[in-house]
Amino acid sequence: MAVLMGTRDGAAFIGEQLQSLLDQSWPHVDLWVSDDGSTDATLAILEAWRSRWNKGSLTLVQGPRNGFAANFRSMIIEPRVDADYYAFCDQDDVWEPDRLESAIRWMETQDMAMPLLFCSRTATISETGVPAGHSPLFRRPPSFRNALVQSIAGGNTMLFNRAARDLLAKASARAEFVSHDWWAYLVVTAAGGKVRYEPRPLVKYRQHGANLVGANVSWRARLSRLGRLFQGQFATWTDSNLRGLAVNRDLVTRDAARCLRLFIRARKGNAIRRFSLLGKSGVYRQTMMGTLGLYLAFLWRRI
Description:
Number of strands: 9
Helix content: 40-55%
Oligomer: single chain
Radius of gyration: 19 Å
Order of helices and strands: EHEHEHEEHEEHEHHEHHHHH
Number of helices: 12
Distance between the termini: 37 Å
Shape: globular
């Protein structure tokens, strides 16, 4: 089991996260930490933890210093990381004790030759650890048709098997991406892999001022996301995802490729044509309001 942690100036909370990793019910955890240029005590804290890490190895490497997405990409394609299972990890969360075991037990019931991705809801906590809500509970099935327009879970909840890691490493070596969680969901489903979305929160997501991406647990946060949608930010992200899929077309299943062609065509032409092609593609978001927002965004060319 390899845990891939990205760090940068995480001294305030990283100790609590490391302790929650050490408290995992899964017996063996090799921790790989890619530090993206910390100037606080993060590196000193990690060095101090080496002697306490009794579940496997703790390896610290220097990140590319080009943002969090590039940092996780560097770990995805790092050939020295070798395991049967892999999990992304942020520096300031707190994991439930069975966070890893729950995912692995599910994978043990599946065909391990298939790319498998496990993810879950999160429970949001404040800087001081006070509960502050949960991420939305999504009920529609995970799929490529959903992944094209939505990332349903944070990377901090994701665990994937060797087949999925090999797939992600190949795809990520060819393309950069905006967000490792959305990219993982997109690539695994595009290639015909299987995704499990666990409704039980297995990660406590710490919300604080330094977070790059906030939790979607309040109406204010959801309205903010809706605002970014209509400002065209999602269109920019979608462009990046489509470029990544284009250079990885050999990894995409025939069904996903057909959906992708319809979706790309739906982004062009007049409103009637866009709506018709979008409907034929079968693309959807997880909620009724989300899907309504999707169609409005297409109407105004914001996605």
